[in-house]
Each structure stands twice: as structure tokens, then as C-alpha cells.
Design brief:
35% helix, Dihydrodipicolinate Reductase, domain 2, alpha/beta, Rossmann fold
Length: 258
């Protein structure tokens, strides 16, 4: 029997691509819900559902690219439903992520800052580089650029890069992050992980991790040219997670690298 997939945020920028990739994968697209307050039309042939609870009841897996404001409510509803959850929404707060982790005690959740296989390989490399390049001599800086409509900064993928470097160095990102420099900031702290966020045009997503030492610079870059890479990865995650035991999984688990 084909996996039944519901899409939360189906009227958003990713919605049409997710519907196309779900159908292309041979899964059953049961329908979707729009973003709260959105008047955008549903993609052709997509059945609208009243709310997240109704969508979850009809699905085996809910793929969610909606809005950070819905994260806690959706976590509670999906945990209650017992259905798997693929979460690609960025900009989640610490409280939102705690709600996601609590839901994962009852259901299978794949939560990723980016569902592109290429990005996830970059994150794996970022962790290894963080471990191999000492913080005392290699300054880590992350630069990202996205379209002008993006509402959160730094991007979820940039934060994921920072967490990977921090993990490689055996520290917590929150303890070493340096974000949004402005004015007379003083010298750069040793061991800091810096972020710069650029916004403009219709850039799908560009991320560069730089390790800068006195003797050399190393740059690791990923550029996305089509959001379909994220949609196909999310559907791949949905097919993988359906029927799995409760737990908080990553895209690295989906790729067999977790």
C-alpha cells in the first residue's frame, strides 16, 4: 500500500513542489492545509483539510513546511495522532524545538534545517573540519544569502552549519555564537563562530563556511538553484520515516549516515 502523505503549508512556496514530488515518488497525496491566515489557492487536485488534526488522521506522514508560529501546536496535535512528522520549518525557538523533542518521544520525527542531500553532506564535512581545525588558530565564519522574502536570520541551514562546527569542537553553539556585528565590537573572540546574513533578489539559498587562519583560508560552499532539491529530499524522508519507532531523526539518518 502506498504511503499516505499530507502536506502542511501546501499553499506556500514549497507546497506545489511537494505535491509534485509526492506524486512522482508513487506515494498517495491525501491533501493538505494552508498556512494560517493565508488566502493562497491550493494546488490543483489537492484536497483541503480543516486543520492539522484532520490532516494527520488521514495520513501516515505529515510533511510540514509551514511557519515557526505553528510548531508547538502542530507538535502537540501530531503527537496525539500517533502519525510521523517530517518538519522542515526554519526559525524555531528553543521552546519550539523542545516541543518537537517532546513529540518525538511519542512519534517518529524527521527534523532537519535542510533536506537537500548535498547540504547534509556539507554538514557532515563541517563537523569533521570543526574537529580537525583548532578553534585557537582557525576562525569559523558562516555567510548565507537568501531571497528578500525570507523572514528569519540566520537561516536554519546556517545555524545547522554552526552547530556542526560546534559539535566537532566539543562546545555548544549558543556559547560561542557571534551574530550580527555592528559598531565598535572589539576584537574577535577566540573560538567564536560568526554569522553574516544577506538578503536580496530571489536567491534560493547560498551558504559558505570559512575557516580562516593566519596561514590559510578554507571555504566550503553549497548553492541551491532549485527548491525541488528540498522537496524531493523531504518526500524521501517521509517515505523513510513512515512506520518507524518514535524518535527524533535527522536527514543524516535518512541518508544512512546517522
Amino acid at each position: 500500500m502506498a504511503t499516505r502523505i499530507g502536506i502542511a503549508g501546501v499553499t506556500g512556496r514549497m507546497g506545489l513542489l511537494l505535491t509534485e514530488e509526492t506524486r512522482a515518488a508513487g506515494a498517495q497525496l491525501v491533501g493538505g492545509i494552508g498556512r494560517p491566515g493565508s488566502a493562497k489557492p491550493f494546488p490543483a487536485g489537492v484536497e483541503p483539510y480543516a486543520d492539522i488534526a484532520a490532516l494527520a488522521a488521514a495520513s501516515d506522514v505529515v510533511v510540514d513546511f509551514s511557519n515557526a508560529a505553528t510548531a508547538q501546536a502542530y507538535a502537540a496535535a501530531l503527537a496525539q495522532s500517533g502519525k510521523a512528522w517530517v518538519l522542515g520549518t526554519s526559525g524555531l525557538s528553543a521552546a519550539d524545538e523542545a516541543a518537537v523533542a517532546a513529540a518525538a518521544e511519542r512519534i517518529a520525527v524527521v527534523y532537519a534545517s535542510n533536506f537537500s542531500p548535498g547540504v547534509n553532506l556539507v554538514l557532515a564535512l563541517a563537523e569533521r573540519m570543526g574537529a580537525a581545525l583548532p578553534a585557537e588558530t582557525y576562525d569559523a565564519e558562516i555567510m548565507e544569502m537568501h531571497h528578500r522574502q525570507k523572514v528569519d536570520a540566520p537561516s536554519g541551514t546556517a545555524i545547522g552549519m554552526g552547530r556542526a562546527v560546534a559539535k566537532g569542537r566539543g562546545v555548544a553553539l549558543d556559547d560561542v555564537i557571534q551574530n550580527g556585528r555592528h559598531g565598535h565590537t572589539g576584537a574577535r573572540p577566540t573560538g567564536a563562530i560568526g554569522f553574516a546574513a544577506l538578503r536580496g533578489g530571489q536567491v534560493v539559498g547560498e551558504h559558505t563556511l570559512i575557516f580562516a587562519a593566519a596561514t590559510e583560508h578554507i571555504a566550503l560552499t553549497h548553492r541551491a538553484f532549485d527548491r525541488r532539491a528540498f522537496a524531493s529530499g523531504a518526500v524521501r524522508a517521509a517515505l523513510w520515516v513512515a512506520g518507524r519507532a518514535p524518535g527524533l531523526y535527522s536527514m543524516m539518518d535518512v541518508l544512512g549516515m546517522g
